[in-house]
Amino acid sequence: MANYRRGRINDEMQKTLAEILREVKDPRVSEAFISVTGADVTPDLKYAKVYYSALQGDKKEVKAGLKSSAGFIRRQVAQRMNLRVTPEFTFVEDESIAYGARISGILNSITITDPDEDGEDQDK
């Protein structure tokens, strides 16, 4: 299978999973405001890693909720996507959004001083 096809499947899987997660009735999932940040399907389409970030809720509870609703999610993906094999999902928390926010906070806290102001006292 060509890599461009797998990339298209990954993108479509990400969009479909984002829609399906809005329909999950498990309160651990529905109240956590989960966003799917990526999907990585293996070349044989049997397994998929789903990267997600949750804005609210306990991380362990959200992961347990996703794991318990994996059957429903898989069935919905099978109905919505035309694939020969519907992959089994592994949910992985994506820390990149939190990491980016932390880096942004650090960069915003840096105070910039004008180098000319510091050098005037030393030259005289």
Would you mind describing this structure in some detail?
The chain contains 6 helices and 3 strands, in the order H-H-E-E-H-H-E-H-H. By secondary structure, it is an alpha+beta fold. It has a single domain, classed as K homology (KH) domain (GMP Synthetase, Chain A, domain 3, 2-Layer Sandwich), CATH 3.30.300.20. A hairpin with a 5-residue loop joins strand 1 (34-41) and strand 2 (47-54). Helix 1 crosses helix 4 (70-80).
Question: What's the SSE blueprint?
Answer:
Elements: H1 3-21, H2 27-30, E1 34-41, E2 47-54, H3 59-68, H4 70-80, E3 88-93, H5 96-109, H6 115-123
Parallel strand pairs: 2-3
Antiparallel strand pairs: 1-2
Helix pairs in contact: 1-4
Number of distinct helices? 6
Largest sheet descriptor: 3 strands, mixed
CATH C-level class is: Alpha Beta
- Tell me the strand order in the biggest sheet: 1-2-3
Span from first to last CA? Answer: 71 Å
User: In what range is the share of β-strand residues?
Assistant: 15-25%
The tally of structural domains comes to: 1
Bulk shape = flat
CA-atom Rg in angstroms: 22 Å
Which structural class is indicated by helix and strand composition? alpha+beta
Give the helix proportion (percent range): 40-55%
Short structural summary:
The chain has 124 residues and is of the alpha+beta class. The protein has one domain (3-95): GMP Synthetase, Chain A, domain 3 (2-Layer Sandwich). It has six helices and three strands.
Notable traits:
single chain; 124 residues; alpha+beta; GMP Synthetase, Chain A, domain 3; 3-stranded mixed beta sheet; 6 helices; flat
